[in-house]
Amino acid sequence: xxxxxxxxxxxxxxxxxxxxxxxxxxxxxxxxxxxxxxxxxxxxxxxxxxxxxxxxxxxxxxxxxxxxxxxxxxxxxxxxxxxxxxxxxxxxxxxxxxxxxxxxxxxxxxxxxxxxxxxxxxxxxxxxxxxxxxxxxx
Length: 138
Hints:
This protein is an alpha+beta fold. It has helices at residues 15-25, 33-42, 49-61, 104-116, 133-137; strands at residues 3-5, 8-10, 31-32, 65-69, 75-79, 88-92, 98-101, 127-130. Strand 1 (3-5) and strand 2 form a beta hairpin.
């Protein structure tokens, strides 16, 4: 059973979980579960796609990975560089380059809207998608 610490699940260490985490660590861009699965299979690892999905979600639940959804609804994942605090992402649609950004104004607005409508324990996700300067220059 997964332990909980500070509201986040602590991961159990398994061989397959380690493979998924290590594979995700190889890149800085967000990647799909299918991509991680294909990369592991190409390396000769015997692992199922559902296992990859499960371990990616465990990384997200533990605060070790970030996830976002594309406009097509596909979930993408990457290891989180700032696991200690809430943040948002600025993502290049062309190359996938990602910057972790703070959004203090967004945080204040979310808190105000929640309080105004009588909500508590509110989570939110803000992802900004665009094209980075390098892709524009190409």
